[in-house]
Amino acid sequence: MPTVWDLVVKAAANHPDRVLFSDERGRTLTTTDLRDRAEEVAAGLGVAAGQVVSWQLPTCLEAVVLLVALARAGAVQNPIIPILRDGDVKVICEDAGTDLMVVPVRWRGFDHGAMARRLGDERGFSVVTVDLEADPGGGLRLPGGDPSGLAPPPTDDDVCRWVYFSSGTTARPKGVRHTDRSVIASSNGVTDGLRMTDGDVYPIAWPIAHIGGIAMINAALRGGGRLVMFETFDPADIGERMARVEPTLLGSAVPFFRAYLDAQRRHGPGPLFPRLRAFVAGGAPTPAEIIRELDEAFGTRGIVNSWGLTEFPIATYPELDDPPEKLATTVGRPVTGVEVRVVDGELRVKGPQCFAGYTDPALDREAFDEDGWLRTGDLGAVDQAGYVTVTGRLKDVIIRNAENISALEVEDLLLRHPDIADAAVIGLPDARTGERVCAVVVAAEGREVTLEAIGRHLVAQGATRQKIPEQLEVVDAIPRNAMGKIVKAALRSSLLDRP
């Protein structure tokens, strides 16, 4: 099996002038540029094979080149989502065993450099800062050096050189160890399902430090297409900004899709994205109502909605020519080499992209069943044709009067209400019923939402009475992590801690 660096070298040899990456500033990287710049950065950093490098950069060309440079050096790299702060980053660096940390001097008003130096002084690691506020011109804001003195690149694909941390829906991030073999396998679904070509343009504003980042980078190296890096996501203008690069693919979760819909309404009757051929999603379920709105506004036919987790990235992936009802209601079929089975309602998986264990080995035993299948914690089903449906989380089932209620199902129904822009459903302790159903909603602009109105709506949608919320909370925004997942722990805490 090849390493990630092997993919870079092969792409540069076979397609030396192919533009793989670009950004809003007009900078571009061909496969040759990527190979050469990565070697220069590896030399500039002076990192030895096996050293642990934590990095916290936004979605920019510097992040892509740094990632590849560390793969060239044979370092153990630990990408960290940029929104995380001292508490989480300290835990991550402790668990990963960081030797060097690479961060922006400042980004979006936060002093990452000061945070990294504080933690470095405490933990004994070095810090390299990147001035992302400086004008890069046509170059890169990364250290460089003479690559002639570099040690040979790694050749083994089964050594754990990637450490990702769970994306923040749990109280403490869990370190997930991957190999070159597993992160390359994570791109199988993208290459087989999307079939990206040199004419494809996919703008990315979600964190490239997420496990999906390396999957998309490997997919581009293996297949083609251009990934456009967007450092910031602002729903007020992201649609118009992305329209300027003429995307053929757009993703990736509810906040993004809402922003595209709003941008199309502002644009008027003509298509804002005339070259668009598909919406892609991953990281969080896409409600049926959002899919319907996208289909109506953009003439698409469902969403290419993948499913996976940090421990097992992109386990399933639809194909563009799948039946519309499968695109709308499932997360596709298992990708090459992956098996999925259902045990007591839980989806369990085996396959080449499975992680190699946690940074805390004590967590490994509970992650797998006695037959070696990874417990995903997701509830779902597999139909006779092999399509997988995700119906909720094991920990996201509300038990009310001894009856199980899927929070995801109620959320999907709530989002069909014209007065609701966003919704989350959680269970709260109740002395009478064990748990009560609480709906947390964002009202559409100029609209009002009442408990009685959503009750009538849910009954009209066919919901049984035990699923009707007993409590309603109207908020300005639903808390979500960087990949669009609702942070329900934060929601519960905020409501339970309320006087």
Topology readout:
Elements: H1 4-14, E1 19-23, E2 28-30, H2 31-45, E3 52-55, H3 61-73, E4 76-79, H4 86-96, E5 100-104, H5 112-123, E6 126-130, E7 160-165, E8 175-179, H6 180-185, H7 188-193, E9 201-204, H8 211-223, E10 226-229, H9 238-243, E11 249-250, H10 254-267, E12 278-281, H11 288-298, E13 304-305, E14 307-309, E15 312-317, H12 324-329, E16 333-334, E17 339-343, E18 346-350, E19 357-358, H13 364-367, E20 374-382, E21 388-393, E22 397-400, E23 403-406, H14 407-414, E24 420-430, E25 434-443, H15 451-460, E26 471-474, H16 488-496
Parallel strand pairs: 1-10, 3-4, 3-5, 5-6, 9-10, 11-12, 12-13, 25-26
Antiparallel strand pairs: 1-2, 7-8, 8-19, 14-15, 15-16, 17-18, 18-20, 20-21, 22-23, 24-25
Helix pairs in contact: 1-2, 2-3, 4-5, 10-11
Please explain how this structure is put together:
By secondary structure, this protein is an alpha/beta fold. Among the domains are: 190 residues, Rossmann fold, CATH 3.40.50; 96 residues, ANL, C-terminal domain (GMP Synthetase, Chain A, domain 3), CATH 3.30.300.30. The chain is built from 16 helices and 26 strands. The strands form 8 sheets. Strands 2-1-10-9 form a 4-stranded mixed sheet. The protein has a 4-stranded parallel sheet with strand order 4-3-5-6, sandwiched between helices. The protein has a 4-stranded antiparallel sheet with strand order 17-18-20-21. The model has no long low-confidence stretch (mean pLDDT 93).
